[in-house]
Amino acid sequence: MKVEMNDIRKAFGHNEVLKNVSFSIKGGEICALLGENGAGKSTLMNILGGVIKQDAGSIVIDEEAINFQTPADSQEKGIAFIHQELNLINDLPIYENMFLGRELKTKKGTLDLEKMKQETEAMFRKMNIDLKPTTMVHDLDASYKQIVEIGKAMMANASIIIMDEPTTSLTDQEIERVFTMMRTLKEHQVGIIFISHKLNEVMEICDRFVVLRDGNLVADGHVAETTTAELARFMVGYDVRTEPLKREKKIGEEVLRVEGLTSQTFFNNVDFSIRAGEVVGFTGLLGDGRSELFQTIFGAEGIPKGKIFLNGEQVTIRSTTQAIEEGIAYLPRNRKENAIIKDMNIMENAAIVTWPTFAKRGIIHTEKHIEVFEGHRQALRIKMGDLTDSINSLSGGNQQKVVLAKWLAANPKLLILDNPTQGVDVGAKEDIYDIILQLADEDIAVVVLSSEAHEIIRVCDRALVMYHGVIQGELSGQNMTEHQIMTLATGGRLIEEEEGERHEHIEC
Ligand SMILES: Nc1ncnc2c1ncn2[C@@H]1O[C@H](COP(=O)(O)OP(=O)(O)OP(=O)(O)O)[C@@H](O)[C@H]1O
Ligand SMILES: [Mg+2]
After folding, report:
1. Is 282 left (phi over 0), alpha (psi -120 to 50) or beta?
2. In terms of Cα–Cα distance, which of 287, 305, 285, 304 is closest to 295?
3. Do 338 and 407 touch, CB atoms closer than 8 A?
4. pLDDT tens, position by position, 44-56
5. Residue 285: which pLDDT band, with cuts at 50, 70 and 90?
6. Once rounded to an integer, what is the mean pLDDT over residues 77-87?
7. Residues 6+ away with beta carbon under 8 Å from 114
8. Would you give the DSSP letter of residue 337?
9. What gap in Å lies between CA 420 and CA 501, rounded to an integer?
10. For the segment 262-273, what is each residue's pLDDT rounded down to a tens digit?
11. Does residue 215 line the site of ligand 1, with CB under 6 A?
């Protein structure tokens, strides 16, 4: 199958998002669709997926001009769409979600639940996914939800699959699994459009690339003939820094210490301490417990066993409100689920939870808040219209920046950033790293939770690697390498050659 989009134009009000874009994909190829946050990638794919209509231009499938009115029209033509914002129904089990809109029926015309369960199970087996089809979607972690979305698209037997940032909250292991699946689909002549801000993924899995900037297609070519640096330059229009971020560390007083922290299911006997001015990374694979650990410290998961000390004093944090009052801020791991309120506008989203910071005797100092937000908007280069526009009108990466701006405005002593660069483009990642280091210089203790080893290495002074709820090891300086992180994250032990040699020596 060959899909051609010709001279596509689309504007939202005065905002001309796609000026004149032509794009094509055929069966058996994987094409990366790249561009800065707000470049128009999701918009172009929403047009191909029948979600919105173009203002001008045509879509041609196998030489036939097509006019999609609804997403169902696009699906019918063999196009499956994994949306950037997850699209599952929480109150249904996985297998029913898998067949939404194309439910299997028995001869009597009732839902054939058994068959749907079996087919889902077979798909999971094929994908090597350890999930029960009968699990309710609301019981799944967002990473698993993403996997279910991917499985769903695969089960639709589509000829073309659009993947809009399918890997943002997946760990390396799961990403590899998805890639294996993509390679199989490619062998079966399925065409895949792959949107991702992780350029190393693009290099690994894609055949072709196209780059959007300012509403135009500015570059295209074969992945084998380019580099991540060149792709980054095509996207943002300037050379993106790649050298390590070096800084003079000035470490202050202890801000947070935990002793023997234990939850019933997620983490066990965790000890660590963090000082003012430090950037400490926590990493590991899915199920390592790091997010739950910090959600607990932030008062969102009930009171754990063990002790928490803030600025040297033992505290019991009973709620997130109390945590904020104690000077803790927490940017959640999944923007789509935990950080954005879809019915609210940009400023409301930027204000919620943190508004007490700007309140005096119960009255919110809105002007001050807007002024602070404006500062962050500029630093983070948030691409947006008015403060009162719906949050839905922002591209995914720009929504993430709004949530980050919100927590920065809370002026915390301890800033916990869980998956802070999810969905943000290569240039904006650097802006965020700069802000993290600047905050550390201002004596804030910063915790970065990330499953991307190179992100931890780039920005953190030291890293604690977790494995099944325990801290498996700590890395810093020369020792902080992707290899060492991976070894610890998979349950291995630190490779300390010198130590080993010394021990051998003693034994002799
Ligand atoms: N429903 C909408 N109403 C108004 N503006 C919109 C709407 N959807 C998208 N836009 C605007 O269109 C532009 C492109 O957005 P789009 O979501 O396509 O970007 P993107 O390339 O997918 O970015 P990201 O990498 O952040 O996901 C943005 O300026 C965005 O604000
Ligand atoms: Mg997008």
Report:
1. beta
2. 304
3. no
4. 999 999 999 999 9
5. confident
6. 86
7. none
8. I
9. 40
10. 998 899 999 999
11. no
Whole-number Å distance between alpha carbons of 446 and 278: 6
CB 62 within 8 A of CB 226: no
- What confidence score (pLDDT) does residue 360 get? 67
Closest ligand by atom to 33 CA: 1
Q: What is the pTM for the complete model shown?
A: 0.84
What pLDDT is recorded for position 500?
A: 45
Q: Is 342 in the pocket of ligand 1 (CB under 6 A)?
A: no
- The two tokens of residue 470 are 């325990």
Q: What's CA 115's distance to the chain center, in Å? A: 33
Break the chain into its structural domains and give their ranges. Answer: 2-236, 250-327+412-508, 342-411
The Cα 264–Cα 407 span in angstroms is 29
Percent residues over pLDDT 70 in the chain: 94
Pocket flag, ligand 1, residue 383 (CB < 6 Å): yes
Tell whether ligand 1 has an atom less than 6 A from the beta carbon of residue 37: yes
CB 396 within 8 A of CB 84: yes
Ligand 1 contact via 35 beta carbon (within 6 Å): yes
Cα 86 to ligand 1 centre (Å): 16
45 CA: nearest ligand 1 atom: 18
CATH number for the domain formed by residue range(s) 2-236 = 3.40.50.300
Highest mean pLDDT among 45-49, 97-101, 370-374: 45-49
Residue 504 has pLDDT above 70, yes or no: no
Pocket test for ligand 1, best of 12, 195, 381, 389 (most atoms within 8 A of CB): 12
Select from 3.30.70.940, 3.20.20.70, 2.30.40.10, 3.40.50.300 the CATH code of 250-327+412-508. 3.40.50.300
Average pLDDT across the chain, whole number:
89
User: What's the rounded mean pLDDT across residues 461-470?
Assistant: 95
CA-to-CA distance for 27 and 3, rounded, in angstroms? 9
- Name the token pair of 293: 């650990």
Question: How does DSSP classify residue 336?
Answer: I
Q: Render pLDDT for 156-202 as a digit per residue (tens, 0 to 9).
A: 888 999 999 988 877 777 788 788 888 988 998 999 999 999 999 99
Burial classification of residue 216, based on how many CB atoms lie within 10 Å of its CB (0-12 exposed, 13-18 middle, 19 or more buried): middle
**Protein residue with its CA nearest to atom 29 in ligand 1:** 38
**Substitution site in 33, 393, 395, 400 for ligand 1 pocket (most atoms within 8 Å of beta carbon):** 395
The size of the chain, in residues, is: 508
The radius of gyration computed from the CA coordinates of the chain, to the nearest angstrom, equals 24
Distance CA 43, CA 393 (A): 11
Residue type, 38: G
**Does the structure show a pLDDT above 70 at 244?**
no
